[in-house]
Design a protein that fits this description.
This protein is of the alpha/beta class and 355 residues long. The chain folds into two domains: 145 residues, 3-Layer(aba) Sandwich (Rossmann fold), CATH 3.40.50; 192 residues, Up-down Bundle (Dehydroquinate synthase-like, alpha domain). It contains 13 helices and eight strands. The strands form two sheets. The chain has a six-stranded parallel β-sheet, with helices on both faces. Strands 6-7 form a two-stranded antiparallel sheet. Helix 5 runs antiparallel to helix 6, helix 6 packs parallel to helix 10 and helix 9 runs antiparallel to helix 11. Keywords: NAD, Oxidoreductase. Its EC number is 1.3.1.32. It comes from Psychrobacter saeujeotis.
Amino acid sequence: MKDFHYQALPLDVHFGNGKSAEAKDILIKHGYYNVLIITTPGQKEAGQKLSQQLQEISAGVYPHAVMHVPVEVADKAVEFARSNDIDCCLALGGGSTIGLAKAIALKTHLPIVTIPTTYSGSEMTTIYGITENNLKTTGKDIHILPKVVIYDPELNLTLPAQISACSGMNAMAHAVEALYAEDKNPIVSLMAIESIKALKFALPMIVDDLSDISARQKATYGAWLAGVCLGSVGMAIHHKICHTLGGTYNLSHAQAHAITLAYSVHYNRNADIEAMDRLAEALGVSSREEVGLAVYRLNQSLKIPMALKDTGLPKEGPANVAQIVCDSPYYNPRDYDYEELKDLLNKAYQGLPPA
């Protein structure tokens, strides 16, 4: 039997409605007394509210996180943390915010605490990404693994329908690719299937009623499982495509994941028969030939914009992305075929079904 290998995961995970109100006590328990709250510009107000809650242990709000962690943004944040004697970075937000906290930790080894407000899953991994010269590179480092994660589904109630849907499909992509990862194993595959089912169930309910707290709880559970998958096994072609779309064209990370997942799984539908049969079952279709269309239709039901051209990808984008992906590939259960990938990305560009 193949040996199982797991990356480290955060040891202190808190989950529950209103749990973020306990953040001060949790931080003090871990010995953090000069905590820098990191947000995006759009979440600055939420960061200030949290800062008031933390009272004397707050070092203020740093509201400068942006998508894909540009290296110049990361360098400024590192300098700020060093010059203000910060002893912990608290990331309040989604992948952009957590990504900036990880960039700080990579250089300073400062501990990270996260309060996720989307379903990105980054809080459960040792994976970081930094963009320089329109190229997004990723890596792994144990020093960037958050020490504490606080899940509070109530914080997601203000997340708009489209962002909720795209972020949830981003999480689903982590679980899907865990099924056919190079280092996949039965335990992670079980979590991946559970994640896919939970997100498929919860996301339509959230889009239908943003105040549905039970659906928010279910989606948070699915996203947590997806994050564990992301942190435990490697990813494949889908993540390479999305990292290229984000790093080269600065497309929305979650939206790129949501749109292109249908085409990625269609490309791999016959590459790992066992994985794709299990995916088909989780998605509620009868054949692995239908997995791409099932994801496409799920996106439609969630009212996710379906065409990459409407997200800022230029006309030459599909060919360029296909070339970059083929020139510097991640592991994938089938070989990279430039012409087929270009064709699928052209369909994604136009918002057409994958098959």
